[in-house]
């Protein structure tokens, strides 16, 4: 189902109001085709160019089911680079502002691990990170993913090109099989299709009409 207005979505009040406050008036093309299935909990592979508004798709999907009173990592977002992870974490915090007390923790390499470990001890609802550092925290036991309901691969084609396939696979071993997995990519190379087939449950492939060849 394709939507023309955010009001057609089953969003909780804090998110619906926040979209109004942020002046997000109409869904972008990719949002109009992917938000409804994303919010019903389906596994999706979403194709869209840079700047098409993909971050909001997974932000709303994971935040709409987040339980702030539950002090566990409920969503994991994996990004190819630290810069992207920082941007994504910022966008999630921005969209979550009216929910109150949502803890978003970034876990990226190139910086000491200890402060991240201490931060995780104080609890995190959402982790946004790069594969290598996230794997390290999982192996250390500092990051528990047993209550994680949503896994997002952002810029998946780029992550796979960087050689993170095995790292992603080893992280997924620690996430419950019953979950929502959302994959975002600018292209659909074979590696993406293979990962989707192996780790997603009957994923739907969506892309904006104007982007179809
Ligand atoms: P992508 O991940 O597809 O490259 P982003 O999610 O980073 O794109 O979105 C690009 C920009 O568009 C961001 O600054 C975001 O805040 C803005 N944006 C996203 N959706 C909307 C919308 N529906 N209306 C207005 N601005 C939006
Ligand atoms: Mg993006």
From TrEMBL:
<protein>
    <submittedName>
        <fullName>ATP-dependent RNA helicase DbpA</fullName>
    </submittedName>
</protein>
<feature type="domain" description="DEAD-box RNA helicase Q">
    <location>
        <begin position="4"/>
        <end position="32"/>
    </location>
</feature>
<feature type="domain" description="Helicase ATP-binding">
    <location>
        <begin position="35"/>
        <end position="206"/>
    </location>
</feature>
<feature type="short sequence motif" description="Q motif">
    <location>
        <begin position="4"/>
        <end position="32"/>
    </location>
</feature>
<comment type="similarity">
    <text>Belongs to the DEAD box helicase family.</text>
</comment>
């Amino acid at each position: 189902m394709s939507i023309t207005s955010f009001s057609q979505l089953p969003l909780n009040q804090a998110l619906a109001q926040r979209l109004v406050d942020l002046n997000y008036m109409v869904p972008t093309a990719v949002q109009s085709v992917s938000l409804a299935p994303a919010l019903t909990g389906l596994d999706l592979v979403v194709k869209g160019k840079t700047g098409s508004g993909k971050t909001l798709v997974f932000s709303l999907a994971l935040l709409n089911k987040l339980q702030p009173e539950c002090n566990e990592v409920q969503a994991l977002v994996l990004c190819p680079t630290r810069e992207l992870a920082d941007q994504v974490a910022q966008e999630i915090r921005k969209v979550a502002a009216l929910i109150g007390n949502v803890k978003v923790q970034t876990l990226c390499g190139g910086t000491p691990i200890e402060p991240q470990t201490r931060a995780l001890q104080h609890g995190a609802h959402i982790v946004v990170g790069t594969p290598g550092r996230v794997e390290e925290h999982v192996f250390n036991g500092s990051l528990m993913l047993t209550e994680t309901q949503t896994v997002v691969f952002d810029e998946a084609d780029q992550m796979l090109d960087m050689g993170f396939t095995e790292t992603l696979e080893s992280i997924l071993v620690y996430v419950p099989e019953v979950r929502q997995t959302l994959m975002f990519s600018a292209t659909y190379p074979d590696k993406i299709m293979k990962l989707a087939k192996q780790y997603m449950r009957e994923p739907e492939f969506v892309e904006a009409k104007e982007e179809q060849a």
